[in-house]
Amino acid sequence: MTLPRLPSLRLDGRRAMVTGAGRGIGLAAAAALAEVGAHVTLIARTAADITAAAREIQEAGGQAAPLVLDVTDLNAVRAAIGAADPFDILVNNAGTNRPRGFLEVTEEDYEVITGLNLRAAYFVAQTVARRMATAGKGGSIIHISSQMGHVGGQNRTVYCMTKHGIEGLTKAMAIDLAPLGIRVNSIGPTFIDTPLTRPFFQNAAFRDDVLRRIKLGRLGMVEDLMGAVVFLASDAAALITGTALVVDGGWTAE
């Protein structure tokens, strides 16, 4: 008898790109990919954040480089990605939110949230995927979505709309890109303790409601997402595409 071998979770020799990599989920994704051997390009608008993050990854023995880029500037995105060697992995993480009730949402709120969460995410993925296709090696694209891509949420109409859109994009992209060996999946976190979400939890009633809905009884940490990122990027997920990995502590189970 020959035992099956576990496909490797290592990413040695592969090139990864992470948007919104200066802090929070993006930083954790970059650190995780570097820890398993990928060379990671950290992308954000703020040079100080990604420069410091890349330096820490290097000091820990990983390979990383910062790239200052505003992903809403599509001409700059196409120029930067076109000038780089093709990536094998994209973690499409950059996103934002402005929580407001439906009746209070302004046109500016709508444009800012959809401009980053949908428009930029779409065309960053398209630009990276075109380079993957030209290289002919396949690849893995991971959209950082949200549990709010599967349910509704109070004061989050635009955000929920964009994340439901990302879930549809994931499925449709997976169908289009499968013949090229490019896998496309999403990760849907619950509320994660990050600089973006921390101000929300100063409201005790909001925090209590969130903890009631998360069946495991605690907020997520960025470390809770690192394994999911590595798994979907690796050969261990070679037959997984067009699916959503929801890391929500049970929020969407009921």
Task: Describe the 3D structure.
The chain has helices at 24-35, 47-59, 74-83, 107-135, 157-177, 204-213, 223-233; strands at residues 15-19, 39-44, 63-68, 89-92, 139-144, 182-189, 244-247. The chain has 254 residues and is an alpha/beta fold. The longest helix is centred in the middle third of the chain and has 29 residues, at 107-135. The chain is globular, with a radius of gyration of 18 Å.
Summarize the structure.
The protein is of the alpha/beta class and 254 residues long.
Name the descriptors.
254 residues; alpha/beta; 7-stranded parallel β-sheet; 7 helices; 7 strands
Widest β-sheet, arrangement of strands: 3-2-1-4-5-6-7
The total beta strand count reads 7
Radius of gyration: 18 Å
Q: How much of the polypeptide forms β-strand, as a percent range? A: 15-25%
Q: Strand count, sense and closure of the main sheet?
A: 7 strands, parallel
End-to-end gap = 43 Å
Mean pLDDT: 97
List segments where confidence is low: pLDDT < 50 over at least 5 consecutive residues: none
Specify the structural class.
alpha/beta
Annotation field: number of helices: 7
Helix content: 40-55%
Shape: globular
What is the N-to-C order of secondary-structure elements (H for helix, E for strand)? EHEHEHEHEHEHHE
